[in-house]
């Protein structure tokens, strides 16, 4: 079934049904023929039984040399028989009944009182009443040509005609020797006709039943074909639906697998970015200058495999001043990319740009950068606007979560840079304060030492000795300065 197409399967079942129907129809036809043959055999046996009874009756008569019966108005002597009567002692007329005359009388009686017809006949009858009709002549000629055959039968209209041959035997010669009869020859035949009323009813019934069974077989064959075609179509349609469903499920599984892989890759990708965020934040805590922060943050971001180039710069006096980049050689953005960076500063919004010209100018020459997108994130440093540009070779560019994290990184870098500016300002103020304080102290020292030449330089020397002793004790610079 798996290797058969739907049409071939349907044709196979139709062929099986047709062959089965043919066998059944053949069986019905064969049964009808057998029944007809059996009915004909029954008719033949029935006629043969009548024939045998008549032959036995004739034989009994012949063996007794004929019989005599009292004459009556219905029984006449056989005019074609010599010595056909005699008188009894009491002078009563006795008529001789030989086998032929007995057959004639029984036939007349049967033909009158029943539907069965008897007749003794011959091609050369002595009695004209025994002249053969067309069937009888046909049968007698058949016996004449086929000496070994004793019976001949034929269906005619509403009766079954049967003819049995009459052979001359020794007892027949007692009466017919002078008529030229010879022992063993066929001198005539005994006809028996049986009505076909019951036979025809049975045949009609079997015909009706056979026709009914034939119609039933044809009907159920057509119905079976229709049902088989319907179920096969249903089965194959279901198989196609299951196949389509399986393919759909496979596609869904593949798509889901792809989605999960993409989600996994995306998660892994974002984890790497998040790791960079942590590294940059850790770096910010250890950086102590604006350029150090820029350098370290870009170096950390450049560790990402898909970040091909990173650049940051400050914009003032209508031009960019490069702060740091991820390549060692001097480089600057070409005009197209420079305009995008400037737009990010002017709008103070992050701008993602799809790269058309995949190059950046390095010392008046172009160097290809295998990147598909760049992101331009603006920031402020000491009241001056700057931008950090990051190039990626990711096919779909920057992810939404990635953009948020990068913006947060740049914001933290900006805060750290500005914090360093404030720190340097505060540190300068503290140094100025300490310097003023030291100058004031030294001024007081000079005033004191000018009053006593013996102690002149004492304060300076004490400070120097204190410093030397602290160094020998390996104290920290802050402690030494404090002492």
Automatic annotation (TrEMBL):
Keywords: Membrane, Transmembrane, Transmembrane helix. InterPro entries: GAF-like_dom_sf, Tll0287-like_dom. It holds the Pfam family Tll0287-like. The keyword Cytoplasm does not apply. The chain crosses the membrane at residues 9-28, 212-233. Residues 77-195 form the Tll0287-like domain. This is DUF3365 domain-containing protein. It comes from Poseidonibacter ostreae.
């Amino acid at each position: 079934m798996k290797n058969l197409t739907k049409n071939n399967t349907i044709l196979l079942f139709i062929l099986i049904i047709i062959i089965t129907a043919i066998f059944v129809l053949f069986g019905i036809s064969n049964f009808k023929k057998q029944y007809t043959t059996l009915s004909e055999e029954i008719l033949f046996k029935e006629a043969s039984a009548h024939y045998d009874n008549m032959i036995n009756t004739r034989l009994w008569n012949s063996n007794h040399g004929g019989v005599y019966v009292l004459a009556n108005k219905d029984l006449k002597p056989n005019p074609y028989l010599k010595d056909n009567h005699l008188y009894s002692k009491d002078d009563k007329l006795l008529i001789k009944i030989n086998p032929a005359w007995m057959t004639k009388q029984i036939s007349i009686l049967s033909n009158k009182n029943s539907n069965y017809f008897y007749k003794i006949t011959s091609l050369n009858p002595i009695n004209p009443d025994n002249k053969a009709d067309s069937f009888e002549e046909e049968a007698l000629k058949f016996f004449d040509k086929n000496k070994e055959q004793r019976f001949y039968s034929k269906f005619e209209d509403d009766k079954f005609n049967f003819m049995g041959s009459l052979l001359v035997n020794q007892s027949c010669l007692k009466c017919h020797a002078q008529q030229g009869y010879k022992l063993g020859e066929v001198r005539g035949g005994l006809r028996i006709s049986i009505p076909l009323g019951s036979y025809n009813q049975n045949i009609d019934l079997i015909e009706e039943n056979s026709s009914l069974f034939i119609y039933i077989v044809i009907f159920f064959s057509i119905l079976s074909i229709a049902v088989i075609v319907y179920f096969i179509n249903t089965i194959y349609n279901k198989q196609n639906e299951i196949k389509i469903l399986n393919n759909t499920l496979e596609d869904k599984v593949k798509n889901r697998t792809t989605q999960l892989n993409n989600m996994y890759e995306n998660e892994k990708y974002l984890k790497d970015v998040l790791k960079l965020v942590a590294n940059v934040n850790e770096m910010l805590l250890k950086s102590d200058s604006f350029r150090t922060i820029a350098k370290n943050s870009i170096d950390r971001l450049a560790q990402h495999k898909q970040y091909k180039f990173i650049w940051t710069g400050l914009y003032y006096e209508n031009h960019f001043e490069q702060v740091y980049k991820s390549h060692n050689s001097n480089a600057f953005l070409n005009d197209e990319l420079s305009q995008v960076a400037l737009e990010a500063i002017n709008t103070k919004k992050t701008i993602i740009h799809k790269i058309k010209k995949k190059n950046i100018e390095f010392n008046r020459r172009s160097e290809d950068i295998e990147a598909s997108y760049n992101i331009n994130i603006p920031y402020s440093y000491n009241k001056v606007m700057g931008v950090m540009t990051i190039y990626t070779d990711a096919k779909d560019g920057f992810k939404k979560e990635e953009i948020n994290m990068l913006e947060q990184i740049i914001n933290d870098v900006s805060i750290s840079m500005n914090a360093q500016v404030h720190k340097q300002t505060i540190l300068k103020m503290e140094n100025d304060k300490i310097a003023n304080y030291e100058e004031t102290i030294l001024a007081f020292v000079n005033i004191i030492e000018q009053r006593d030449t013996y102690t002149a330089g004492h304060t300076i020397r004490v400070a120097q000795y204190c410093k030397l002793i602290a160094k020998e004790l390996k104290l920290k610079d802050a402690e030494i300065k404090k002492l």
